[in-house]
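Need tokens for this chain, all 161 residues.
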Amino acid sequence: MTILGIDPGYGIIGYGLVKYDGRQFTPVQFGAIRTEIGAPMPQRLCELYNDLNTLLETFHPEEAAVEELFFNQNITTGIQVAQARGVILLALAQRGLRPASYTPSQVKMSVVGYGKAEKRQVMEMTRTLLGLKKVPHPDDAADALALAICHGHSLRADALR
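Here are the structure tokens for all 161 residues:
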């Protein structure tokens, strides 16, 4: 199955697609959707929506995972990211996908085995699990791939129950 992981944002939105056969993950595509800095928020959300739909039309993922939002400082940035996450959820729902949501701690636990792992540890384990020569860049893409891996592990655990 093909799993799409998305690290939400409004300037840089990480995405990562993996194939998962219940045992092994294989990278398909990863990168970032970027919106125009300084553009009005409605325009940025439209860019995100259109680019995400192109990605969905190209790869037809069967599963999706989107990171839960966690913000503790800048409420304005948090609201903007929440708006972008809403657009992401809408685009996925329109394709019949019901994305799972995972907190950063859940992703760390799933990928590294420790819920308080450092970002570098998660990125390195993501690289290892996918058999990549280098850690994926930008960081948002690596985060999205880790989300896809987390979702694959979750699906496997559910199937074993």
